[in-house]
Design brief:
mainly alpha; globular; two-stranded antiparallel sheet; 20 helices
Length: 460
């Protein structure tokens, strides 16, 4: 991406989006500038830094975390208390969520490599038909893979396949569509995207998220067909594959075993041991137990650990920042606000955005999952999948070209959103946390709700 104006524009949009929601969060006793709480200003500055300095996101996130924590320790305190004692109590309240996320993010990175090494991605090109339907079917495959792996792995696998079948002549609009397909495919799956995994850990039922596939499927058709036609005109699909490809079914089985272990653990804990969910990271531990049990069959790619841990720490830093925001007085959740979250998530990192929405509550979780999951596709750095794919295709790192050639993605987002609204309707869920009142978010009093796990069955 060129430095200067193209990079500044989305960052400016981020600041404007944040300022549009921050005034309603003003608490009478909290320091504010022009009606905006200082907490939000510091958080906005952190996210602005992430948007501007892509090569230093970890340093920016950790600096922002240290700044926000210091400010609250010295001036405003926390819901759990003031000063260092309050900060310690706050972190004790959050540790289950953070450990769960760390285990899942790193574990899923190893799981995705198991799938890549299984040989299945090399077989996928044989399933692609001739003509423009070939690029479209590849997007459908990426969409499906994202639901069982995660959006990052699906985007990288799709990009690798596209580079082969299109002889590396991949149109930037089609690269945007690959990212959109991976994000859309993960929007309705609690293992398909970090945001939906956060919702799952927080006690939201997978059945309340799956409705996002209605919007995602419609969006896939809306953006997928013009993207496929665009790619076919740019470079037609080729089938020059002479080597026989072997599928390692043991690795495929390991992937299935880990996913089943994660799903089964979450269901059992929420239904039978809900009171313990706030006190131990069952889900993350289950994934790692399954990974380690599979080591005698196939060893994971342990060399991925350093980068996976580094990327996870970046995301966790943003989650902790979000947990310290005064969200009890944000504007009420509604379908228009959910729609706007999709556009905000293109520049406002969707991890803390999801954390804020979960703490606020009152959303239809399927709409939220679709908005924060798919909305980031509108810009190349708006989602982890986009950032990952751009590492394979550096030409994608251009906001102007991404918007110009990927024009069908925001259209697909809006059409998909309203399709879900028309077909399923808006059904906001009650607070799924014990101790949270049913008052409208705009007048809620501060509570001591933990985003680390459900205190009830979690299924509603």
């Amino acid at each position: 991406m060129n430095a200067g104006l193209p990079r500044f524009l989305p960052a400016a949009a981020l600041a404007a989006a944040l300022m549009s929601i921050a005034p309603a969060a003003l608490a009478a006793e909290a320091p504010a500038v022009f009606g905006i709480p200082v907490d939000f200003i510091l958080f906005g500055a952190t996210l602005l830094g992430v948007a501007l300095f892509h090569h230093y996101v970890l340093q920016v996130a950790l600096t922002g975390l240290a700044t926000i924590a210091t400010y609250k320790i010295l001036f405003t305190g926390f819901k759990a208390g003031d000063g260092l004692v309050g900060f310690g109590a706050h972190m004790a309240h959050e540790w289950v969520l953070l450990v769960n996320l760390l285990c899942l993010l790193v574990g899923f990175a190893l799981l995705a490599r198991h799938f890549e090494d299984s040989g299945v991605p090399e077989v996928l090109p044989k399933l692609l038909p001739e003509g423009w339907r070939g690029p479209f079917v590849l997007l459908v495959i990426i969409f499906l893979l994202s639901g069982i792996l995660d959006n990052i792995a699906a985007a990288l696998i799709g990009g690798t396949v596209a580079a082969s079948v299109f002889k590396r002549k991949v149109h930037i609009g089609y690269l945007a569509a690959i990212v959109a397909a991976s994000n859309a495919g993960g929007a309705g799956s609690v293992v398909g995207d970090t945001t939906t995994t956060m919702m799952w850990i927080d006690g939201v039922s997978p059945l309340d998220v799956i409705e996002a596939y209605i919007a995602a499927a419609v969006a896939l058709v809306v953006f997928g067909i013009p993207a496929a036609l665009q790619q076919h005109r740019h470079c037609a699909i080729t089938h020059d594959f002479h080597a026989a490809h072997h599928v390692d079914w043991a690795r495929v089985g390991i992937v299935g075993f880990i996913l089943v272990a994660a799903i089964a653990t979450n269901v059992v804990v929420n239904l039978k041991f809900a009171a313990l969910a706030d006190h131990f990271p069952f889900l993350g531990v289950a994934v790692w137990v399954a990974l380690l049990l599979a080591v005698p069959v196939r060893k994971p790619e342990w060399s991925l650990m350093p980068d996976a841990v580094k990327g996870s720490i970046f995301l966790l830093a943003l989650v902790v920042c979000a947990s310290m925001m005064p969200v009890e007085k944000l504007p009420p959740a509604s379908w228009p606000s959910a729609l706007s979250l999709g556009f905000i998530s293109a520049v406002f990192d969707n991890i803390p955005l999801t954390a804020l929405a979960l703490k606020q509550g009152g959303y239809d979780w399927g709409f939220l999952a679709y908005a924060v999951g798919f909305g980031g596709s509108m810009l190349w750095f708006g989602s982890s999948a986009g950032v990952a794919l751009s590492s394979l295709f550096p030409e994608a790192k251009s906001v102007g070209r991404w918007l110009r050639h990927g024009w069908f993605i925001p259209i697909g987002y809006v059409v998909g959103f309203f399709a879900l609204l028309f077909i399923n309707g808006w059904h906001p869920h009650e607070k799924h946390k014990e101790g949270v009142t049913s008052q409208p978010p705009a007048v809620m009093q501060p509570t001591t709700v933990s985003p680390g796990g459900s205190t009830d069955a979690g299924y509603h």
